[in-house]
Amino acid sequence: MTGTVQIFCAGNLVFIIIGNFVCQIYVASKVFEGAQVIRGIVRGTRTFIIGWKRADELGIKPVMIFWSIFLSALLLIVFIIIVIVLIYGSQGNF
Protein backbone atom coordinates (compact mmCIF):
# COMPACT_ATOMS: atom_id res chain seq x y z
CA MET A 1 0.00 0.00 0.00
CA THR A 2 1.16 3.50 -0.72
CA GLY A 3 1.56 6.08 2.00
CA THR A 4 -1.48 8.04 0.86
CA VAL A 5 -3.73 4.98 1.05
CA GLN A 6 -2.41 4.11 4.51
CA ILE A 7 -3.09 7.65 5.77
CA PHE A 8 -6.60 7.54 4.26
CA CYS A 9 -7.33 4.17 5.92
CA ALA A 10 -5.93 5.32 9.26
CA GLY A 11 -7.98 8.53 9.05
CA ASN A 12 -11.16 6.58 8.41
CA LEU A 13 -10.40 4.23 11.30
CA VAL A 14 -9.84 7.18 13.66
CA PHE A 15 -13.11 8.77 12.45
CA ILE A 16 -15.03 5.56 13.13
CA ILE A 17 -13.49 5.12 16.59
CA ILE A 18 -14.26 8.73 17.56
CA GLY A 19 -17.79 8.37 16.16
CA ASN A 20 -18.34 5.27 18.27
CA PHE A 21 -17.08 7.00 21.39
CA VAL A 22 -19.18 10.14 20.84
CA CYS A 23 -22.34 8.07 20.28
CA GLN A 24 -21.59 6.01 23.38
CA ILE A 25 -21.17 9.10 25.56
CA TYR A 26 -24.34 10.71 24.18
CA VAL A 27 -26.48 7.60 24.67
CA ALA A 28 -25.06 7.01 28.17
CA SER A 29 -25.95 10.59 29.12
CA LYS A 30 -29.53 10.05 27.92
CA VAL A 31 -30.07 6.55 29.33
CA PHE A 32 -28.41 6.94 32.74
CA GLU A 33 -28.51 9.67 35.36
CA GLY A 34 -25.91 11.12 37.70
CA ALA A 35 -22.89 8.97 38.51
CA GLN A 36 -24.29 6.10 36.46
CA VAL A 37 -23.35 7.99 33.28
CA ILE A 38 -19.69 7.12 33.90
CA ARG A 39 -20.64 3.48 34.40
CA GLY A 40 -22.66 3.62 31.17
CA ILE A 41 -19.65 4.97 29.27
CA VAL A 42 -17.40 2.21 30.63
CA ARG A 43 -19.97 -0.52 29.97
CA GLY A 44 -20.59 0.13 26.28
CA THR A 45 -22.42 -3.09 25.50
CA ARG A 46 -24.95 -2.50 28.27
CA THR A 47 -25.45 1.08 27.12
CA PHE A 48 -25.93 -0.08 23.53
CA ILE A 49 -28.60 -2.64 24.47
CA ILE A 50 -30.49 -0.36 26.85
CA GLY A 51 -30.21 2.47 24.33
CA TRP A 52 -31.94 0.38 21.67
CA LYS A 53 -34.62 -0.74 24.13
CA ARG A 54 -35.44 2.86 25.06
CA ALA A 55 -34.60 4.58 21.74
CA ASP A 56 -38.16 5.62 20.91
CA GLU A 57 -38.94 6.69 24.46
CA LEU A 58 -35.82 8.89 24.69
CA GLY A 59 -35.87 10.09 21.09
CA ILE A 60 -32.38 8.81 20.32
CA LYS A 61 -33.20 6.43 17.47
CA PRO A 62 -31.13 8.36 14.85
CA VAL A 63 -28.11 8.30 17.18
CA MET A 64 -28.57 4.58 17.77
CA ILE A 65 -28.69 3.98 14.01
CA PHE A 66 -25.45 5.91 13.54
CA TRP A 67 -23.85 4.08 16.45
CA SER A 68 -24.88 0.74 14.93
CA ILE A 69 -23.34 1.76 11.60
CA PHE A 70 -20.11 2.93 13.26
CA LEU A 71 -19.90 -0.26 15.32
CA SER A 72 -20.54 -2.48 12.29
CA ALA A 73 -17.91 -0.62 10.27
CA LEU A 74 -15.40 -0.96 13.11
CA LEU A 75 -16.00 -4.70 13.44
CA LEU A 76 -15.67 -5.13 9.67
CA ILE A 77 -12.39 -3.20 9.58
CA VAL A 78 -10.97 -5.22 12.47
CA PHE A 79 -11.96 -8.44 10.69
CA ILE A 80 -10.31 -7.27 7.45
CA ILE A 81 -7.12 -6.29 9.30
CA ILE A 82 -6.96 -9.71 10.97
CA VAL A 83 -7.38 -11.46 7.61
CA ILE A 84 -4.69 -9.29 5.99
CA VAL A 85 -2.26 -9.95 8.83
CA LEU A 86 -2.93 -13.69 8.68
CA ILE A 87 -2.43 -13.83 4.91
CA TYR A 88 0.56 -11.53 4.54
CA GLY A 89 2.06 -12.22 7.94
CA SER A 90 2.51 -15.91 7.17
CA GLN A 91 4.34 -15.01 3.94
CA GLY A 92 6.74 -12.66 5.69
CA ASN A 93 5.63 -9.71 3.53
CA PHE A 94 4.02 -7.70 6.28
Features:
mainly alpha
Describe this structure as you would to a colleague.
With 94 residues, this protein is mainly α. The protein has one domain. Helices cover 85% and strands 0% of the residues. The chain has 5 helices and no strands. The longest helix is centred in the last third of the chain and has 30 residues.
Order of helices and strands: HHHHH
> What count of domains describes the coordinates?
1
Distance between the termini: 11 Å
DSSP helix fraction: over 70%
**Percent strand:** under 5%
Shape designation: elongated
Tell me the number of strands: 0
Mean pLDDT: 85
Total number of helices: 5
Instruction: Give me the Rg, rounded.
Output: 17 Å
The structure class reads mainly alpha
Biggest sheet record:
none
Return residue spans where pLDDT drops below 50 for at least 5 consecutive residues: none
Offer a concise description of the structure.
With 94 residues, the chain is mostly helical.
How is the secondary structure organized here?
Layout: H1 3-31, H2 36-42, H3 44-53, H4 55-58, H5 61-90
Helix pairs in contact: 1-2, 1-3, 1-5
